[in-house]
Input
Amino acid sequence: MKVQGLMSYSLLESTSLEIDNISQAIAELADNTRDAAAKRDVRLSFWIDFRSLPGSPEFEIHCWDNGPGVPKERLQRMLGFGFSDKSAREKETIGQYGLGVKHACMRLAHSALIFIKTEEDAHVILMSPGFLLSKEIEEIEYPTIRFTLEDGKFKIDDSDPDYLQTAENLIAYSNLKSLEDMTKSIEEMPATGVKYILFQVRNNAKEFNLTDDSRDVIIMHSDGSRPFTQARAGQANTAM
Output
């Protein structure tokens, strides 16, 4: 299974240039949770975690929420370009033009796995310009595996004739080791929600300071020179 983006793959990579600071990218992902909560008049949560990789200086960024997830029929709108559920009357954001998730993920990392869990099923989606380039795929597409919920357990939907090839691609171009890893990641999520695992993190300018505070990650300015600060109306600059 795959979700088409209907654009050149180079556009996906270039979206990393559209957001100045990584804090804005994280805020864009959190904003999707806020919008889901506002539409349903419920209180939702958004978490972020930085996880080191054993034996490597690399790390992953994990972001997830406990929202309702995204139904299968709306995945195209979520991952395509130009589709949005935001009203034109709302405050202008990149998400208003159907760009938020793509811009945010590609600003933070070269590749992302997106886990979407609803009350009926779950999907694991690979967003990776590197995958598209290596496979010489000119248009954007997202390899996607669907899991169905049976007797309280998530099982891979083997009705898709391409599911084994898709699984191989997701494993080969991510930090997952097996289908069991995918299932475990789904089961670790809240009952419903969206989870982003961002890997091959863009940290060339050392925007993520992982050394100065053993208990936290400090977000730096894009040149890595000092902690990022955000000016707020009526307040002094706030460090992130």
Summary: The first strand starts at residue 2 and ends at 8. The CA atoms of residues 11 and 140 lie 8 Å apart. Helices lie at 9-14, 22-40, 75-79, 100-108, 129-134, 163-172, 179-188. Confidence is low (pLDDT under 50) at residues 86-98, 232-240.
